[in-house]
Design brief:
mainly alpha; rod-shaped
Length: 163
């Protein structure tokens, strides 16, 4: 009889511990949140810097169409942090008010490329490894991370969990 009671007590304790461990596992490993996709940038002559306009091929085409020769100027690299309105006084014949208005109208119709936001707490390592830009960013902070021989085992986890 004593042996039966001991078996029941041990069995109950084991069952409670297993239930607690399972509950803790599900609490600790939450389902990853979906990645967030931010809408593309909007462009304007007053707010967009020249660097952004030159690096986005469609915006660059608008500049080349309305102000031929602007993108080929030697000084354009110095002006990259400035807006078109900022540099207008330096090129009054090239960048007129009429051209700025036409450029602005076309730029506002452009849709910039969407930006996907990954986080260390909600994005799976596999998703990061499959995105070349994200993989390069992680490798810049954790050299050799994506090429580690055991990285395949971590594809289903987040970086926070792997920490």
């Amino acid at each position: 009889m004593t042996r039966l009671k001991l078996s029941l007590i041990v069995g109950s304790v084991v069952a409670v511990l297993l239930a607690a461990a399972a509950g803790g596992w599900f609490y600790y490993i939450m389902a990853p949140q979906p990645t967030v996709t931010l809408p593309g940038l909007s462009y304007s002559v007053a707010e967009s810097d020249i660097d952004s306009l030159l690096n986005y091929s469609e915006a660059r085409a608008v500049l080349e169409r309305h102000v031929p020769g602007l993108t080929g100027l030697r000084q354009i690299d110095v002006a990259r942090p400035l807006t078109l309105e900022d540099i207008q006084p330096y090129f009054p014949q090239m960048i007129t008010d009429g051209r700025l208005a036409a450029i602005d109208a076309e730029l506002r119709q452009l849709e910039g490329s969407n930006v996907v936001v990954y986080t260390t707490g909600s994005t799976l390592v596999g998703v990061i490894l499959d995105d070349p830009e994200a993989r390069d960013i992680v490798d810049s902070y954790l050299p050799g991370f994506s090429t580690h021989p055991d990285i395949g085992q971590g594809r289903g986890f987040t970086l926070n969990f792997m920490q």
